[in-house]
Design a protein that fits this description.
The complex is a heterodimer of chains A (117) and B (135).
Chain A: E1 2-8, E2 11-20, H1 25-37, E3 42-53, H2 55-68, E4 73-77, H3 81-89, E5 98-101, H4 104-116
Parallel strand pairs in A: 2-3, 3-4, 4-5
Antiparallel strand pairs in A: 1-2
Chain B: E1 9-15, H1 21-34, H2 39-58, E2 66-74, E3 77-84, H3 105-112, E4 115-120, E5 126-133
Antiparallel strand pairs in B: 1-2, 2-3, 3-5, 4-5
């Protein structure tokens, strides 16, 4: 897995590439914690180049959601059909603080709305 | 070999370490290609096998005990057997206080496979059998 931090409209974006599993998901967890510890309440994960995720990755997303619920949200940009299906199976996509975006443009629109609200 | 008949029996034995989960997935990709599974079923199989193996890895303290993954075609099913020398632990799905939501592994296996069978072996160890219909 490769992890790069960028920004979209001053909101932190973590770009992931490769496979997110039990072995490497703690690295993502640490990166998300760092962003949240810095006071950010919106975190975006760009996953269009992630071709595999299992409960190791899902655990990290659940932990982030627990910290954000009620105060912010977690956006996932560009999951492929398999990744999206797995997020559906574990019920993540039903969570109000979890938002799935088809691409960066949709995420940017949501950020604008969030900032205006 | 009789024309048109496919034999499939393959095994990979590695140490029960998190760093080997990736190798196990590459092995499963080969199996899935041999069995001509589509991309969706291949993904499902990789996740289910990884969950079974991750459980074994988590409970192998030294990450040095053997973890064996065997694939075979049984009738119209592809069967993957995950064998380890530890015990299969069922973590509480309701434990919201730990970072590790390990309770997700078993529900995922059940959701993605046609059949999941977990057996505690009398000599110690656990056998997980995952079955996927081929047609």
């Amino acid at each position: 897995m490769e992890l790069i931090q960028t920004q979209l409209k001053n909101t932190p974006v973590l770009e992931l590439k490769g496979e997110l599993d039990h072995g490497n998901s703690p690295a993502l967890g640490a990166a998300i914690d760092e962003v949240l510890d810095a006071g950010e309440r919106i975190v975006l994960l760009e996953v269009s180049h992630v071709d595999y995720i299992d409960s190791g990755g899902v655990s990290v997303l659940l932990s982030a959601l627990r910290r954000l619920r009620g105060t912010g949200w977690l956006g996932i940009i560009g999951p492929n059909a398999n990744v999206r299906r797995l997020l559906d199976i574990v019920g993540l996509t039903l969570d109000d603080a979890f938002v799935v975006f088809a691409g960066p443009q949709e995420a940017e629109n949501a950020l604008k709305e969030s900032l205006e609200a | 070999m009789t024309p048109g008949r496919r034999a499939l029996f393959r095994n990979l034995t590695v140490e029960a370490s998190p760093s080997r989960l990736r190798d196990i997935r590459r092995f499963i990709e080969d199996i899935a290609a041999d069995a001509t599974l589509d991309a969706e079923r291949t993904f499902d199989l990789k996740v289910a096998v990884s969950e079974a193996c991750a459980n074994a890895v988590e409970h192998s303290g030294c990450h040095c005990t053997p973890l064996s993954v065997t694939a075979r075609v049984a009738g119209d099913h592809l069967e993957i057997e995950v064998l380890d020398t530890g015990g299969f632990h069922l973590p509480s799905a309701l434990d919201h206080n730990t970072r590790n939501h390990r309770g997700l592994g078993l529900p995922l296996m059940v959701a993605l496979m046609d059949e999941v069978r977990i057996t505690r072996l009398p000599q110690g160890g656990t056998k997980v059998i995952l079955r996927l219909r081929l047609h």
